[in-house]
Amino acid sequence: MIKWLRMYRLLIAASIRSRMEYRFNFWFSTLMAVIINVVEFLMLAVILLKFGHIKGWTMEECGYLYAVLTLSKAIYRTAASDVHHLEKYLVGGDLDALLLRPIPILLALMSQNFQLKAGELIQGTAILTICMGVMIRQGQMTWTAIPLTMVVIMSGAVLLFAIGLLTATAGFWILRIEELQNITEDAARTAAQYPMSIYPNWLQWLLIGGIPVAFANYLPSLYIVRQQMDWWIIPLSCAVAFLVLGAALAAWRVGISRYQSTGS
User: Which spans are transmembrane here (predicted)?
Assistant: First the structure.
């Protein structure tokens, strides 16, 4: 394991050096990511300023949900960006080149086209700091919420990666997975940015049991922010993340075993 982590670090360093050959593109894409995320959150803030709350959730509480999910997504997309783009490797035959490397193919894929999601990390950290600061001063949460939130963010990153990998692995069977990713990754994650109490029951259960993004931020926040659940929801969220990860890795191994390269 240590050997593969060292190899991953070396591959990431090489990817960073290649990307920094085009510094303007790097900083411009970072700036655009910040602007897009700021506009997205401002739309939510405008609604909250107009009506005061969403189903009893204040601006600070909604900001907490948004920031936690943003940071989890940023960590996932930073550590394993091209897992989300497996389709192009399958369609274009680029996966064949990765098969030739003397390292696990998933590790090679994760290290491709490394992108530090600086914009999302900065914005998510800023929103989370402000919202938690307000709620701590108001006595809504204590300082113990900080380490718990860090655990939730990392657990959420594992969960989002697992969902992304599981979706990407479907490409070994159906090849074109963009529409599926729109549902399992993009649409589900967007829905989880808001309090799930605003959704009908069937959609809430889908986001808890079907595509379990609720465990990335909403369910843990019911304990950390609102004290509406017991402490066990935190370890349960971590357990769900690693269970989905285990299922995704198992599916990946099966998919790789049946993969036929473009030259076969």
Answer: 26-49, 118-136, 148-175, 202-219, 231-252
